[in-house]
Write a structure and sequence with these properties.
Blueprint lengths: L7 H12 L12 H6 L5 H40 L1 H12 L4 E4 L7 H4 L2 H31 L3 H5 L1 H8 L1 H11 L7 H29 L18 H27 L5 E4 L1 H64 L1
Antiparallel strand pairs: 1-2
Helix pairs in contact: 1-12, 3-12, 4-12, 6-8, 6-9, 6-11, 9-11, 10-11
């Protein structure tokens, strides 16, 4: 099929307009720079120049906003990262705090008023036995220290007294360890272990006692405690005194624990730790929200830049192809 020829006067007018770079009279009129680039003979070079010019033109209008957004993004990232360590520390404190604590009801009677008659008798006996055990431990340790004849203790008896208090302190420490367990089953196992150890040490001490003190008259010979023959005796005796005091303390604690308050209330410490964690968490979330908005705006500008470049290229290629099409029509 042959192409339809234009009238000579129309074709001549279009050719003349294309040669001098005059914009085509239609809806395709747009960027003057694109119309000028139609005169470039190198198509690939023209496309590259149009692309770069469109990007530069867009950057000229948005570079300040984009730079400010990128600087703000960097600052927000640093603020967000700086809160990672504090929020982990706050989370650790919160997770490591018991949520509830025992509390006394307003209508709850006093501890002594709740005790059964058996426990009212047992508690005074255990207290006296505990104090006696601690006193015996102190006396034996002090006697052994002074009986050693060490000049440091003989010239400074206060030092010997302080050293003699060590068994009592160890007993207290062993008894207080029971308070660190949250589960009742764990506390019972620990108490049973201490009672068992006390029984074993007591049996060993009884054997050593019989070997070292075969007669009643030798019981007053405290100097024999520091001899090599009685080294195991003094060690077992101190250990027995420590474990006995701990066992008595644990027995007393088990009785008192039965009458602990049965109401739970939020621990003030957990409330404080949760508020501290929530404050840091909310601050970090606010930064994250602002950071997301900032990044979204940056991405919008980047996409808009690409869109403008593609739109300009499309306009240029349309005009270039339209012009070529008209030239072909006039030639025919």
């Amino acid at each position: 099929m042959s192409r339809k020829k234009l009238k000579p006067e129309v074709g001549q007018s279009l050719v003349q307009a294309n040669k001098i770079g005059t914009p085509l009279p239609s809806k395709t009129q747009g960027d003057p720079f694109i119309h000028k680039m139609r005169m470039c003979g190198d198509r690939e070079l023209a496309i590259q120049v149009v692309r770069e010019h469109a990007g530069t033109q867009f950057d000229r209008e948005h570079i300040q906003e984009l730079t400010e957004l990128q600087m703000r993004e960097s600052a927000l990232e640093k603020e967000y990262d700086a809160l990672n360590k504090p929020i982990e520390e706050a989370r650790t404190r919160k997770d490591g705090t018991s949520r509830y604590r025992k509390t006394v009801r307003s209508d709850q009677p006093s501890l002594w008023g709740q005790l059964h008659i058996k426990d009212k008798i047992s508690i005074p006996i255990l207290i006296v036995a505990l104090l006696t055990s601690l006193g015996i431990g102190f006396a034996n340790a002090y006697t052994a220290i002074m009986g050693s004849g060490d000049i440091a203790f003989l010239t400074n008896p206060t030092l010997a007294v302080l050293m003699a208090c060590v068994p009592a302190l160890v007993s207290l420490a062993l008894e207080r360890i029971n308070q660190l367990f949250d589960l009742d089953s764990t506390r019972r196992k620990y108490t049973f272990a201490v009672f068992t150890a006390t029984g074993v040490v007591a049996a060993g001490w009884a054997v050593l006692f019989a070997q070292n003190y075969g007669s009643a008259s030798s019981l007053s010979d405290w100097g024999s405690l520091v001899t090599g023959k009685s080294s195991f005796m003094i060690a077992s005796q101190l250990l027995l005194e420590i474990l006995t005091a701990s066992s008595l303390g644990l027995a007393l604690d088990e009785i008192v624990r039965k009458y602990e308050p049965d109401c739970n209330a939020d621990s003030p410490e957990i409330i404080k730790n949760e508020m501290a964690f929530e404050a840091i968490f909310q601050k970090q979330q606010a930064i994250l929200t602002e950071l997301s908005v900032c990044r979204g705006r940056i991405r919008t500008i980047e996409v808009s830049r690409q869109f403008v470049i593609e739109e300009k290229l499309c306009e240029f290629l349309f005009l270039k192809n339209y012009e070529s099409h008209l030239n072909n029509l006039t030639e025919d």
